[in-house]
Design a protein that fits this description.
By secondary structure, the protein is mostly helical. It is built from 4 helices and no strands. It has helices spanning 2-5, 11-37, 41-70, 78-90. The longest helix has 30 residues, at 41-70.
Amino acid sequence: MLVISVPFGGVYGIALGTVISTAFSAIVNMYPNRKLLDYTYTEQFLDVFPSLIISSLMGIFVYAIGFFETGRKPNTNVTDHNRNWQLHYSI
């Protein structure tokens, strides 16, 4: 899946391909739980949903740090990534 996504946007294509691949893998891995443990897709999703929301909010927050500090699109150099990482883990 990831190799197929490279021509569709380079790094961004790989990132999107990873999200799609992970979602598909999660559904495939949920199937045995549904059959063997009578643990439905809905119950499994509701168990994962709070963590998904928290991690999404954290990602948005870390990405937005660059906008608040400089007033422009975040830089992609190592210094900015280190600063964002340090701020994230200091909270």
